[in-house]
Amino acid sequence: MQREVAVISGPTGSGETTITNEVIARYPKSVARLVTATTRPPRDEEKDGKDYYFFSKEDFIQATLDGRIPEYTYTKNRDTYYGSFLPDLEKKLGNGLVVLVNADIVGARYYKERFSAVTIFVVPENLTALERRIRERSPSLSEKEIAHRKENAAAEIEKEKSFYDHVVVNADGKLDKAVDQIVEILNKEGYTLR
């Protein structure tokens, strides 16, 4: 079976986005990342259509109603929606690409059901490493927000890890090893990487 969509998930700070970008860098002619939709404002260097599709809340909700965003999650503490932008997915699949999706459990279930996607869960080697990554990535976060994100990540690992087809540890300083493992999984599971 030729597979087209794979999900690479993980709690905040696990490195799932970095790993996804590394896989794409190795196979730029055959692999692309799904650009998802969000209602959060763009960060400094982010560009619409490249990093995310940035929507107002009203436009995002309308896109869910008209089917352009078939699955989504609302993050209450950030008052933000995130979801899959179907036109981006259809364009990439139409170009014959393997599409890697960084999604939460809601998205992972959707892609597994709808596209027979293989799901991979990336975890840090421990919560201390996770906290350090959160601090490095977002130095302006309050201690309360860091504690909240760490707590959410621990709960996500505990509750959701068993759903995924594969679990890959992304240890500090060993990114290449995690990327190699994911490439090996994708090859074994019937994805064409070239």
Task: Describe the structure in your own words.
- The protein has 194 residues and is of the alpha/beta class.
- The chain folds into 2 domains: 5-32 and 98-187, P-loop containing nucleotide triphosphate hydrolases (Rossmann fold); 35-83, Guanylate Kinase phosphate binding domain (2-Layer Sandwich).
- It is built from 7 helices and 9 strands; from the N terminus they run βαβββαββαβαβααβα.
- The strands form 2 sheets. A 5-stranded parallel β-sheet has the order 2-7-1-8-9, sandwiched between helices. Strands 4-3-6-5 form a 4-stranded mixed β-sheet, with helices on one face.
- β5 (72-75) and β6 form a beta hairpin.
- The longest helix is centred in the C-terminal third of the chain and has 18 residues, at 143-160.
Please tally the β strands and state the result: 9
User: Unreliable segments (pLDDT under 50, ≥5 consecutive)?
Assistant: none
Which CATH C-level class of the largest domain is it? Answer: Alpha Beta
Write the CATH architecture name of the largest domain.
Answer: 3-Layer(aba) Sandwich
| Residue share in helix | 40-55%
Number of helices: 7
Total domain units:
2
CATH superfamily grouping of the largest domain: P-loop containing nucleotide triphosphate hydrolases
The secondary-structure class comes to alpha/beta
Q: Report the biggest beta sheet as strand number plus sense, adding barrel if it closes.
A: 5 strands, parallel
Helix/strand order, N-terminal first: EHEEEHEEHEHEHHEH
Strand % is 15-25%
Principal-axes shape call: globular
